[in-house]
Design goal:
The chain has 365 residues and is an alpha+beta fold. The two termini are 38 Å apart. It has helices at residues 14-35, 63-69, 100-103, 113-125, 132-135, 149-156, 168-184, 215-220, 291-304, 322-331; strands at residues 2-8, 40-48, 51-58, 75-82, 85-88, 140-142, 161-165, 189-198, 201-211, 224-230, 245-251, 260-261, 286-287, 305-316, 335-336, 347-350, 353-361. The longest helix has 22 residues, at 14-35. It has two domains: 2-89; 99-255 and 287-362, Rossmann fold (3-Layer(aba) Sandwich), CATH 3.40.50.150. A hairpin with a 2-residue loop joins β8 and β9 (201-211). Strands 6, 7, 8, 9, 10, 11, 14, 15, 16 and 17 form a ten-stranded mixed beta sheet that branches. A five-stranded antiparallel beta sheet has the order 2-3-1-4-5, with helices on one face. α4 packs across α6.
Length: 365
Amino acid sequence: MTAYGLLVSPSHNRVYAQSAADLVKAELTVFSERALGGRVGDVREAEIGGVPYVTFTGDELTEQDIRLLSNLSSLYALFQIEGELLRPVVLQRLDVFGSDLLTIQKYSGKTNEYFTKLLLNVTAMATDSPMDLVTGRPRVLDPMCGRGTTLNQAMMYGLDAAGIDIDGKDFDAYAAFIKTWLKNNRVKHQAEIANVRREKAVLGRRLHVTLAASKERYKSGETMEITVVNADSAGAGKFFRPASFDLIVTDAPYGVQHGSRRGLAGGGPRTPAQGGQPGRKGKPQLSRSPVELLAAAVPEWARLLRPGGAVGISWNTFVGRREQLAEILAGSGLDVQDCEAYRGFRHRVDQAISRDVIVARRPSG
């Protein structure tokens, strides 16, 4: 048996840092069970040289194993432990762009980029082909994408990604950010915004970006695509073909910073005529629960998922119970991953938010 030590990234914010070691232990356990044949064990926290590590044991890691583990969300460095010595393991990250793609955006309510990566990773592990994360090109959808943290993480991995959000300001903010970032970093690309029409009616706006990691790849056609639609997520099937995504990953409104409006799957305001509930001065009433939103939207999302694909949702447990979300996912024909490894992600964000993750797979048959 070989022992390894994982150094957790020191760049977390204070609150997330308190949970980072527990989260990476759960993530590592999922990686082991789903992609490494259970060959990683004895996952624990340990202090080495006065510094906290996450340690684990197993057979000596193969190159393929290292390719996968290099992408653990909070991994800063990996060492093979030999007695009192640490031998560095050369990481092989998927990242094709600089980390500023994920960190440069600063705004209230932004989902932590490390957690976004974790959610994408553990959702990918639930698919029928978990190693496709490093050997293939799974296509990603965030049906409540906000200002695009999930899309940027998919882009870091070199994956095609799409998003939907009903908030026009978030759509405009992401479009402005990504076009500016691509230009400033001299990434070869094409970007356009156009209305989506059907039978002369405008259904929403669409941002479509074609880009590549290098000019040479762009010229040879080795491109990736980012698509964002400004529309209601419950109508996702109007914009994307059935069974066209391998991964659906989203951070549901917490009912605090990002409340959801009743009757609206996209999380934005609706008039009473559109199904919103009037509050003071005729405004739609804010719903603190993501359950109503997900009950309306998940059946539509499930139709967009390929057989063998998976959906991962994070949410605030103070405003929605795990059993409620599991019932919604199961009701759409999805198999909820309910093993102990997938129950290890609950953590505190602040006094009003206790965040958890639920993952489900669409059966292949």
